[in-house]
Amino acid sequence: MKKFIVTYLLLGFGLFLQAQEKLQVVTLNIDENISVSEGDKLFVVGERAGIKIESYEGTEIQMNLKLVSKNPSKVEAERDLLKFRHLVEQFGNEIYFRNYIEIAQGEAKPVSNLRAFYTIKIPANIPIDIKNRFGATQLNKIDQDVNIEMEFSNLEMEDVKGAITIQTKFGDIDGSNLRGNFSFNTTRSDINLNQIEGRFKLRTKLGNIKIAADKSLYELNVDSDKSKIEFIPFKAESFKYDLSSSYGDLVINTFSNFTFLDNSKKLKHVVYNENSDFAMVTIKANFGSIKID
After folding, report:
1. Both 289 and 197 in a single domain?
2. CA-CA distance, 286 to 243, in Å (whole number)?
3. Structural domain tally of the chain?
4. pTM for this one?
5. Which secondary-structure segment (H or E) carries 6?
6. Are residues 79 and 196 in the same domain?
């Protein structure tokens, strides 16, 4: 009985401390509207940033940026927010949105929880370059070329069309209704793609990869190290396959009359429909696994 009494007392004391440590939130709000034309390009460089970008039918980039500082002390939150800087610059055809932490000589590092939140609407003919660290990026209804580099950041894509290049370390990727030419180079990232059309090339290390494709997939090429790959085609027999797994498993649940070119402990190599004109699916797994469902 004494054990339970102590537990309740500790829980009550913890709730009391939480009430005492209520966070103070200080926010700086920035709005920018920039007229653009064909040939312009947007660069977004985020640090601890949530970046949301959407295409629209317009002639200017509309950007809202919120810089947020959270701390139990309002004075500390305000002081640290002054170290959270932002820039809006234009050099010729290049437009830059950037946020970063700047610490003057002799100043202490920020102790507050600092976050930036971009909401951007951009005309569809303007290409985008995104760099983000320790944050998250969302692309919605995008119809243009996009280059993305991320570290310790997640990426969500919904209804994205164009030539898309993605490089990421330590961040997961979710995408749905993707059309165009997509290139992924990832390390320690889980990838989940649904309703993909076009050409997709993935180079992955240390991740779980799940891809669901319909009949409009023209080409899929996956080269992976120490990754688990699951491919779920709309109709398995409508593709031709070249599948190889080195020192790993290869499981095919959707068709049976495939040809083993090698079936040893070291290498499992399968081809199917190799003489057809169907879209090509090539998957290589080194010290990983392949599953076709």
Report:
1. yes
2. 11
3. 2
4. 0.89
5. helix 2-20
6. no
Residues 33 and 120 in one domain: yes
d(CA 93, CA 217): 34
Report the C-alpha gap between 161 and 39 in whole angstroms: 19
| Rounded-to-integer distance, Cα 6 and Cα 217, Å | 61
Classified as helix, coil or strand, 67 is strand
Residue pLDDT, tens place only, 143-185: 999 999 999 999 999 999 999 999 999 999 999 999 999 999 9
Strands 259-263 and 267-272, bridge-based pairing: antiparallel
Domain extent for 30: 22-140
Strands 239-246 and 267-272: antiparallel
Q: In this structure, are 72 and 123 located in the same domain?
A: yes
Pair (274, 188) in one structural domain: yes
Do 136 and 179 sit in the same domain of this protein?
no
Same domain, yes or no: 288 and 186: yes
- The pLDDT tens digits for 2-59 are 333 333 333 343 433 444 468 999 999 999 999 999 999 999 999 999 999 999 999 9
